[in-house]
What we know:
Layout: H1 16-24, H2 28-31, E1 37-42, E2 45-54, E3 67-71, H3 95-107, H4 110-113, E4 119-126, E5 129-137, E6 140-141, H5 144-148, H6 169-172, E7 174-175, E8 183-184, E9 186-191, E10 198-202, E11 208-212, E12 221-224
Antiparallel strand pairs: 1-2, 2-3, 3-12, 4-5, 6-12, 7-8, 9-10, 10-11
Amino acid sequence: AKVYTFQVFPLAETTWAQIAEISEAGKAPDMWSIGDEKDIIVGDETLTLVIVDFNHDDTTGGDKAGITFGLKNLMAETRAMNGTGTNVGGFTGSAMYTWLQGELLANLPEELQSVLKLVDKKTSAGSKSTTINTDSMKIFLFSSIEIFGTTTSASAKGEGEHYPYFSTITKRKKYISNGVGAVNGWWLRSPDVSFNSNFNLTNHNGFNISYNASGLYGVCFGFCV
Length: 225
């Protein structure tokens, strides 16, 4: 068997290749803590990532991804889930999903792209359906229950498990332009199960609401290594 020997480095100073190796060896929780930060450059903006949990997400290959990351704050540009007010087709049928898997993924640092895990994310199907679809993806938005630990009348049960990082309002309140801009709401991948027009979001006060899919709100994406 391969023997792993690791020198402990702050997450911010560790390469993505090293992070992936440590994650694969199951040593990430011994090295770092939930909330530890690492910056990346996407296009012309610096984004601060945080560890939101260890061994949380199911990989498409059938095991657990060692680390799940999410943005500490929001990207500079606000975006709509869809060009019109609809959640028909759910998250994977949305313009936001197409952008995440296409343009955003392609603009991540190449070293990071090479170590991203395909993970299975659970999301209601849209069109007021409570049917839960499981879809494999490298980049995702978070669901209502993943952020808040509970569902509301606007979100379906079964869209994953709560990430402990988001347990406080302080961690759920996010700011545009990686923290230097104004506080802003940010989209969740959960379609509103009461309306064909809305997706859930975390509002500027850190609470779960739903809004028309054509609204412009912040982007907080996640991924696994």
